[in-house]
Structures are given as structure tokens and as C-alpha cells.
């Protein structure tokens, strides 16, 4: 069964974009004060100064809204990172610094972080395009931190593992099962995969050749390349 392809939405007018910004701001404010349960569509509409029906035309559900809120937060993060890039010498150091800066931003807003992560966890197939956008944004941020213009399949695989670890570390911290020190250690450890999969590392070239022959790895590389040149 093929996935349903949504028709492309027409670009928003300046007025519509301003309305969308108000909605996302209201969502973040409510989530920041009370977490996932505090984001009620009627209250978001009232805080944003829009009709409830208008809100649902922009975001069909609370999950859509909170995933879009995470997209918006990642956009802000990427803008900040471009103004003040990570300064580590090794690619692994730059990626670790990038993810820890993202973590510290979420640490300042734990209720908002929890709401966005829960939305990603609860998202079903109807929210797949929005969730995919979040994944591409994260991939693009990590790839930009590496400074790699043409990452190998092995390095793209390392990026996937880093993303999985980052997401898992965030969940375990939000649930109180990991300290900030543990998160830092896990992030710094997994980011070393970037250096270990460098073509200059002994044994990496053979692994990259094997990965290149795998269909899924090649497809992910195409998607990651699109994300890196796209929305973030």
C-alpha cells in the first residue's frame, strides 16, 4: 500500500503567515507553562486571537500543532547556530556541542520540551510529513555541524544513530531517569562515530563500501542531502 500524498499547499500570504506565527507562539507559551495537557485547541485559538475553525484549518489536531511547534523551535536553533557556530576542531566535538546547546535550550523549558516530545511519540501516519520534516531538520543541523559536504553512507548511518541517541537521551532526562551529566556523556560518546566513520580512519572505507551497496543507506543519503539544502 502506498502512502497518501498530500497536494502541495499554496504559499501563505503575509497575513496568513503572521496568523500562523501567533498560533505557534501561543502553543509554545501554553506548553511552556503546563506541558502537553495545557495545550488545548480552544485556549490556543483564544490566545492567538483566531477563531477555533481557523486554527483547525492551519493545524488539524493538537499533535500537528505541537510537532509544528517543534519545527519552529528547530528553526530558531538553526538560526542561532549559524550566527554562532560550534567551535570544536573535530567534527564529533562540533556535533556534540551543537546537541548540548539544543539540550540546554530545552532544559530551560522542560514543560515545552516534554509536550513536543510527547507529540512526536503520539504522532500517527496522519502526521508523518510533519514528523519527517522534524527529522530532516535535525539531520541538517547535525550535518552542518560536521562540516561534511559529501558525507559517506557510513557517516550518514552515524548521523542516524546520533539522532536516535539524542532523542532517547532527551526522553530519559525528561522522565527523570538520566542526569544532565549522563546525557552529556552519552551524546559525546555517540558523536565520536562521526570521526570513526571518516574515510581516513582505518577500516572505515571498507565499511562505507558495504553500506553503499545497501539500498536503504543510499536512499537515506538522498533524503538527508535534500534536508540539508532545504528548510533549515
UniProtKB/TrEMBL annotation:
Where's the HTH tetR-type domain? 17-77
- Keyword DNA-binding among UniProt keywords: yes
**Signal peptide span per the entry?**
none
Q: Where is this region: Disordered?
A: 201-232
| DNA-binding feature ranges | 40-59
The alphabetical list of record keywords is: DNA-binding
Bias regions of kind Gly residues — which residues?
A: 210-232
Q: Source organism's superkingdom?
A: Bacteria
Matching InterPro entries: Homeodomain-like_sf, HTH-type_TetR-like_transc_reg, HTH_TetR, KstR_C
> What is the name attached to this protein's record?
TetR family transcriptional regulator
Which species? Streptomyces gobitricini
Amino acid at each position: 500500500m502506498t502512502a497518501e500524498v498530500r497536494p502541495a499547499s499554496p504559499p501563505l500570504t503575509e497575513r496568513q503567515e503572521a496568523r500562523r506565527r501567533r498560533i505557534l507562539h501561543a502553543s509554545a507559551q501554553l506548553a511552556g507553562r503546563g506541558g502537553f495537557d495545557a495545550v488545548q485547541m480552544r485556549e490556543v485559538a483564544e490566545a492567538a486571537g483566531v477563531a477555533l475553525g481557523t486554527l483547525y484549518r492551519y493545524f488539524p489536531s493538537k499533535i500537528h500543532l505541537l510537532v509544528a511547534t517543534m519545527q519552529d523551535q528547530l528553526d530558531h536553533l538553526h538560526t542561532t547556530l549559524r550566527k554562532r557556530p560550534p567551535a570544536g576542531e573535530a567534527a564529533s566535538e562540533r556535533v556534540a556541542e551543537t546537541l548540548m546547546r539544543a539540550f540546554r535550550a530545552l532544559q530551560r523549558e522542560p514543560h515545552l520540551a516534554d509536550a513536543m516530545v510527547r507529540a512526536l511519540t503520539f504522532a500517527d501516519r496522519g502526521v508523518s510529513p510533519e514528523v519527517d520534516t522534524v527529522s530532516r531538520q535535525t539531520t541538517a543541523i547535525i550535518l552542518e555541524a560536521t562540516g561534511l559536504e559529501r558525507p559517506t553512507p557510513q557517516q550518514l548511518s552515524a548521523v542516524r544513530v546520533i539522532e536516535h541517541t539524542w532523542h532517547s537521551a532527551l526522553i530519559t532526562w525528561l522522565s527523570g531517569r538520566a542526569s544532565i551529566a549522563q546525557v552529556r556523556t552519552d551524546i559525546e560518546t555517540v558523536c565520536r562515530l562521526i570521526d570513526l566513520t571518516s574515510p581516513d580512519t582505518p577500516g572505515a572505507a571498507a565499511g562505507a563500501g558495504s553500506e553503499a551497496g545497501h539500498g536503504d543507506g543510499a536512499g537515506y543519503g538522498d533524503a538527508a542531502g535534500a534536508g540539508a539544502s532545504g528548510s533549515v
